[in-house]
Amino acid sequence: MLSATYHFPTGFLWGTATSSHQVEGSNSNNNWSAWEAQEGRIRLGHKAGLACDWWGGRWKEDFDRAAESGQNAHRLSLEWSRIQPRPDVWDEDAIDHYRQMLRGLRQRGMTPLVTLHHFTDPLWLMELGGWENDNTPTLFEKFTLKVVDALKEYCQNWVTINEPNVYTVMGYLFKAFPPAKNDLKACFAVLKNMVRGHAAAYRAIHRLQPDASVGIALNYQSFKPNHAWLPFDRALADFTHNNFNVSFPNTLMTGKFKFAFKSIDLPEARNTQDFLGINYYTRQMAAFNLLKKEDLFIHLTFPKDAEMSDTGHIANVPDGFFEAMKFAKGYSLPIYITENGIEDADDDLRPRYLIQHVHQMWRAVNFNWPIKGYFHWSLVDNFEWERGWTQRFGLWGLDVDTQVRIRRTSVDVYEAICRENGVASAMVQQYAPSIYSQLFPE
Ligand code: BGC
């Protein structure tokens, strides 16, 4: 049998990604904690509760796990509602908590990538209309100035906003996230203000830290027509791609914001990215459906013969990941894979999914596309938004009642990849023999 390795460049970042509300626990001042208290909002009535108890200090043991298993980076987010619990109050203890965490990463040899906004908003901000309010970008800029000034000693890489596209469609079109609206005008306003908020934060960070690297984390989905021969399906797949994938990063390049059927100039957004972060999970097929008026007549399904995750949330389509990176390199910026992963409680599919996706990334790197790092979602099982605890994305499992961590085989797989800085044939033979001949054809 041949022995070969797909290597990555020296200095490549290998980490995992998390977000504040999903891991910290005991959040009670943001829109998600309020949402979880309402009946029928979260699957099985689940609540974030203690989550992974990072606010109680368990980040230390989880960072140990990450470092001891070969990871050299971690992406986490700051909880705005803790740092600014009321419009006129800054909580220095909360800021210090994050300072300790970032110092903790550095002490363990891990490079931090910090997200300033990952889905949650302070309650007081939502009372002011959240991101529909044209003043929110200014408030976000103030928050950014405060935290970046306090934490810049420990971090140089910043994601301003995580998945503005998901935040907007889930909250203002598909009614799955708070505030559960179905309103295209509101979508436009929210996205526009997220562009403005990003642009203001981008400049604020560079004022405080000229050599900072600032970008967004975009959720890229590979959209294909359900029936390639149907013009309607083709047009809808293009429409979905343009609005979901293209609109936001293009605005940050050109200063022209186009969404749905409207466009406006936002010149302050021009050239406000130092890198592009890509979160890739899956592919979806778009079909025209007259019954789906609320969803703009778009019916999305997964590719028919794809291997599916536990609860049918993700189809394993590694070439969609390659497509995502090809799209990203069109911006001529460094690229980080800021999220990629799968829900898989029994860890049957994850080892294969992980290896297949890292292999696609190797292909991209070998075309000299500027991919600088990969952050697997996630380190430990955490609270999955409207899906609660029904989905398990962690390399480590979590027993939510006891806080016990369960080491999955995927920890070993990812550790092998991180330590090798690549994918070796022996790993594939050991952890995913069914794809061996696909990855290493003789
Ligand atoms: C989000 C994460 C989430 C993950 C898996 C991404 O869209 O950024 O917060 O946990 O998907 O559901």
State the secondary-structure class: alpha/beta
How much strand?
Answer: 15-25%
Strand count, sense and closure of the main sheet? 8 strands, parallel, barrel
Sequence of secondary-structure elements = EEHHHEHHEHHEHHEHEEEEHEHEEEHEHH
Give the bound compounds: beta-D-glucopyranose
The amount of helix comes to 40-55%
Overall average pLDDT: 98
Instruction: Using the coordinates shown, work out and report the CATH topology.
Output: TIM Barrel
Per the principal axes of the C-alpha atoms, what is the gross shape?
A: globular
DSSP summary, beta strand count: 15
CATH superfamily: Glycosidases
Kindly provide the radius of gyration, computed on alpha-carbon positions and rounded to a whole number of angstroms. Answer: 21 Å
Give a short summary of the structure.
This protein is of the alpha/beta class.
How would you sum up this structure, described in words?
The protein is of the alpha/beta class and 442 residues long. It has one domain: Glycosidases (TIM Barrel), CATH 3.20.20. Helices cover 40% and strands 19% of the residues. It has 15 helices and 15 strands. It has helices spanning 20-23, 31-37, 54-68, 80-83, 92-107, 123-127, 136-151, 164-172, 184-208, 231-254, 318-329, 350-366, 409-420, 425-431, 436-439, and strands spanning 5-7, 13-17, 73-77, 111-117, 157-162, 213-225, 256-259, 262-265, 275-288, 298-301, 335-339, 371-376, 396-398, 405-407, 422-424. Strands 2-3-4-5-6-9-11-12 form an eight-stranded parallel barrel, surrounded by six helices. The protein has a two-stranded antiparallel sheet with strand order 1-15. Strands 7-8 form a two-stranded antiparallel sheet. α7 (136-151) runs parallel beside α9 (184-208), α8 (164-172) packs antiparallel against α9 (184-208) and α12 packs parallel to α13 (409-420). The longest helix is centred in the middle third of the chain and has 25 residues, at 184-208. The radius of gyration is 21 Å and the shape is globular. 51% of the residues are buried. The model has no long low-confidence stretch (mean pLDDT 98). The structure holds beta-D-glucopyranose. Beta-D-glucopyranose binds next to loops.
